[in-house]
Amino acid sequence: MSVDLPTGAHARPVGAEEDRTDAIIHSFEDSGPQDVDLNGYAVEDWIAMLLFWVMALFVFLQFFTRYVLNDSFAWTEELAVYCLIGVVFIGSSMCVRTNRHIQVDVLYRWLPKSAGRVLSTLVDIARVAFFAYGTVLVWRYVNLVGNEPMTTINWNKSHVYWVVLVAFVLMLLRSLQVAWQHWKQGYSILERPEAYDVV
Predict the structure, then answer these.
(1) Which residues contact 97 (CB under 8 A, 6 or more apart)?
(2) Using the 8-state DSSP alphabet, how is residue 103 labeled?
(3) Which of 6, 8, 131, 171 is exposed most, by the fewest CB atoms within 10 A?
(4) Is 149 helix (H, G, I), strand (E, B) or coil?
(5) For residue 14, how far is the Cα from the chain centroid?
(6) Rounded Cα distance, 127 and 118, in Å
(7) How many CB atoms neighbour CB 170 within 10 A?
């Protein structure tokens, strides 16, 4: 009498693979409780996270009403899109604060230190000017179309535009803060990217 052993995706790990699996399992058992440090998070981080989970709730509600109840709530899709807009713009403020926007730093490797410092300062000034101009443009946009109604709900779109305006103001303030930090410490992430790596 022979016994058929499972093969393929349902087979149990054998030998070295089983030992490795056991080692991973035991590593979780051996590790003690970890301290959680929330000091690195700012107000915009929490707002972006809240908007993300509200958006996830709307998407789940849309999925549930469409595929389970066969009668979707149209407003959930629109509000999910508006939450995504908030997550993107508030999240951009978070990226400005932590120097995590896309940057090209290869030129700084070949420049003399003084030229790199001047160019880095010009980049900081250009970033502040960009966010200041963006803030003015969004302010004008809010004043032009702020009373436009949403498609599925009897609310103004001004709520969304105000979130974008607040995000641009935050990006402007954070870019000023980052530029000042770069000036005080004498270098920026463009000049010394390794100094900004977080372990």
Answers:
(1) 42, 44, 174, 177, 178
(2) -
(3) 8
(4) strand
(5) 41
(6) 14
(7) 23
Residue 197 and residue 44: Cα distance in Å, rounded? Answer: 21
CB 75 within 8 A of CB 152: yes
Q: Which class for 16: exposed (0-12), middle (13-18), buried (19 or more C-beta within 10 A)?
A: exposed
d(CA 175, CA 93): 9
Distance CA 84, CA 90 (A): 10
Locate all alpha helices (DSSP H) within the chain, ordered by sequence: 16-30, 43-63, 74-97, 113-145, 158-185
Q: Residue 199 CB: number of other CB atoms within 10 A?
A: 2
Q: What is the DSSP letter of 156?
A: B
What is the CA angle 96-99-105, rounded to 5?
A: 130
C-alpha to C-alpha distance for 104 and 122, rounded to whole angstroms: 14
- Domain positions in the chain are 42-191
Cα 19 to Cα 5: distance, rounded to the nearest angstrom? 20
Q: How confident is the model over 109-151, as pLDDT tens digits?
A: 888 989 989 999 999 999 999 999 999 999 999 998 878 888 8
Q: What is the pTM of this model?
A: 0.78
Query: Do 177 and 188 touch, CB atoms closer than 8 A?
Result: no
What does the alpha-carbon distance between residue 178 and residue 188 come to, in Å, rounded to a whole number? 9
